[in-house]
Write a structure and sequence with these properties.
mainly alpha; globular
């Protein structure tokens, strides 16, 4: 009887742990995101930021690791094509839309503890390993 109660408790804890991690969605495939309209992308970003704000630091870290893995899965040609498409979309945005995107990202970053901001900055540098050399030289080092 005692063993079955312990086993049941362990299973309950494991199940609750999985449900907690399920609160943060998997990253959206960049090949899908590139086809979103501005409104779709902002809605998706705001929903994601809200869920990430509620998540634990470990969950946020896991989400960002999955994001890096999603980019690693792309071939260099796919990355280049997506980069070009994102650049063209950015140029087509109005100044107000660009400002909205920047403000949303800044507010999310500011909502995080200082330690996590530093970790995100480190991960951002890690992401530059997957950028083309031309893009690396145009990226500001200290965006946050």
């Amino acid at each position: 009887m005692k063993n079955s109660v312990q086993t049941l408790l362990i299973l309950c804890v494991a199940l609750l742990g999985r449900l907690a991690f399920a609160a943060v969605p998997d990253p959206v495939d960049p090949r899908e995101v590139v086809n979103y309209t501005f409104e779709q992308r902002m809605t998706q970003t705001k929903q994601l930021h809200a869920k990430l704000k509620e998540a634990s630091p470990a969950e946020r870290l896991a989400y960002f690791e999955k994001s890096i893995e999603a980019i690693k899965k792309l071939t260099p040609e796919e990355r280049k094509a997506l980069r070009e498409k994102f650049k063209m979309q950015w140029k087509d945005l109005s100044d107000a839309q660009k400002k909205e995107i920047k403000e949303e990202n800044r507010s999310f970053i500011k909502s995080l503890p200082e330690e996590e901001r530093k970790e995100l900055k480190h991960r951002r540098k890690k992401m530059q390993d997957f950028m083309l050399p031309d893009d690396r030289k145009h990226r500001p080092e200290n965006r946050w």
